[in-house]
Amino acid sequence: MLTKRIIPCLDVRNRKVTKGVKFQNNIDLGDPIEMAVAYSEGGCDELVFYDITASAERRKIDIQMVRDVAKAVHIPFAVGGGIETLDDMRDVLLAGAEKVSVNSLAVRNPQIIAQGARRFGSQCIVLGMDPVAVNDKTKFPSGYEITTRGFRERTGLDALEWAKRAEDLGVGEIVVNSVDADGTRQGFELNLTAMISGSVRIPVVASGGAGTPQHLIDVFTTGRADAAIIASMIHTGHYTIRQIKDELIAAGIAIRKKW
Amino acid sequence: MITIVDYKAGNLTSVELAFASLGIKTFITDKPADVLKSEKIVFPGVGAAGAAMDNLRRLGLDEPIKKMVAEGVPFFGICIGMQVLFDFSEEDGGTKCLGLLKGSVKKFKPKDPMCKIPQMGWNTVVQKCRHPVFNGVKDKSEFYFVHSYYPSPADENLIIGTTDYADVVFASAAGKSNIIAVQFHPERSGRIGLKLLENFAVWNGVC
Predict the structure, then answer these.
(1) B59: which residues sit within 8 A by CB, 6+ positions away?
(2) What integer pLDDT is reported at residue B150 of this predicted model?
(3) Does an H or E element contain A202, and which?
(4) Mutate to test the interface with A, among B46, B117, B142 (most CBs of A within 10 A)
(5) pLDDT of residue A21
(6) By CB atoms within 10 Å of each CB, which of B18, B75, B93, B184 scores lowest?
(7) What's the CATH number where B84 sits?
(8) Is A130 labeled as catalytic in the residue annotation?
(9) Predicted ipTM?
(10) Size of interface A-B (CB pairs under 8 A)
């Protein structure tokens, strides 16, 4: 049986893993390579790295870091942040990443998804989206609007319509990162995740809000997610991946048991 | 030395780095002459069968590969590199493949509309026989998969391992004599995946 994936997220700034709440008050947590190795040995199923200041600083992603990760861990990992062109995608993939994640870029230029999927294969192209709950149901039938640039900019795009459009354009996977839940450790946005996962045929990764193993159980059942991103709950040492997986297995969720 | 065949079907970095982490040297090439000198061949790849076969023919690699397989050189197909070993794939409107293993490659057609295609993630491989490349790998170990089509060997004896997805139990590992092929990605399957690559590096092609 295909198992649900647990994916630690490493936000990287100046080659240090960092974590904030709603993109603010970031503190440094450690070396990305050491943390990647520890999580991989600890039983995570995949990793994702975001170079969170590459865009703001208008610089390319840290390719040497991608290479170092690829040498150190032999599980799939995705890289996002600072991707502006097809050549940027190529550089990240050739450095050894399994997937490349686009977010703001895809909003500005949706065709980059189609071009990337054609050139590198759909399975390499991940769409990251940051939806926020809104009240205007006429303008946003799903009840969620896509934001970009670390939640600072509204796009006018409806979250569900954007997800379906990205699927049509050839994206291989969608990471749904709830602005409202991000960094709160109060649980995933189940309604949003279930709505998007139930409307597309590609895998959906839930992101934002993981605080306890029960939150993951909820997002894999009610939230219909295929994978879930975790950060604070393991970065702080509150839980190990083994502990999380044991609770999920006890709850009857299909989880990779041996590594 | 192990030759990794580069037929422009995706990224070879992860395969190269996985072998390197084991201290095993590999040589990446897209040249028929190099393939003909190989001691062992790794045949990886992602993407579509049609493009993969076009590239193999355009680079003149199809005949050298068949020749080396016939000579008994240990051969490891991975993902699309497994699929193109069969006679035929349903992908890209029907693609004639290398015909080194009897059978075809079919598209997942799940009854459940919620079933996600591609299969992306870790799934179990049930070992149908003991194969040297699976030495030290426990039955029902999990490996990383990414694919929308699955191999369907014509002969049960070709099946080495099976995996259950989208209403079908398919051959996730297959082979005969000096050919071993897997649908999953050993180079992305952590320690257990690396074990397969390590086993292949010392395998003499007899099973």
Answers:
(1) B7, B8, B30, B32
(2) 97
(3) none
(4) B142
(5) 60
(6) B93
(7) 3.40.50.880
(8) yes
(9) 0.94
(10) 95
